[in-house]
Amino acid sequence: MFATPAFAQAAGAAATPGGDLITMLPMMLILFGAMYFFMIRPQSQQAKKHKAMLAALKRNDTVVMSSGMIGKVTRIEDAEVMVEIATGVNVRVVKAMITEVRVKGEPAPANDAKN
């Protein structure tokens, strides 16, 4: 007496097992494509910019480190950089920890290659 026709119709319907996969596959591909363009691609472009910034680093550049300290580059090695954070205070910093180059310095003279 209180049963609605909707409940009576739902009991007889059966879903096909292969039909759900065929309808979900395009939606999953669209979701992966959106995730690539909104998350993966911008992150890889940002990493490429950071790598180029570190490759272009030179003496007398003012840099910001990941710790928030600001200093001037005094010497560049393969994986490390010597940064002057105060007058006469030099610290060795891993290149990857440099987050920003604020002021570009002038190139070092050619005869000063030993530093």
TrEMBL record:
Q: Would the keyword Protein transport turn up in this protein's UniProt record?
A: yes
Q: Which keywords are on file for this protein?
A: Cell membrane, Membrane, Protein transport, Translocation, Transmembrane, Transmembrane helix, Transport
Where's it mainly located?
membrane
Per the UniProt entry, the signal peptide is none
- GO process terms (BP): protein transport
Q: Which SMART domains match?
A: YajC (SM01323)
Q: Which domain of life is it from?
A: Bacteria
Work out whether the entry's keyword set contains Acyltransferase.
no
Q: What does this protein do?
A: The SecYEG-SecDF-YajC-YidC holo-translocon (HTL) protein secretase/insertase is a supercomplex required for protein secretion, insertion of proteins into membranes, and assembly of membrane protein complexes. While the SecYEG complex is essential for assembly of a number of proteins and complexes, the SecDF-YajC-YidC subcomplex facilitates these functions.
Which family, according to the similarity comment? Belongs to the YajC family.
Subunit and partners: Part of the SecDF-YidC-YajC translocase complex. The SecDF-YidC-YajC translocase forms a supercomplex with SecYEG, called the holo-translocon (HTL).
Q: Which NCBIfam families match?
A: yajC
Q: By what name is this protein known?
A: Sec translocon accessory complex subunit YajC
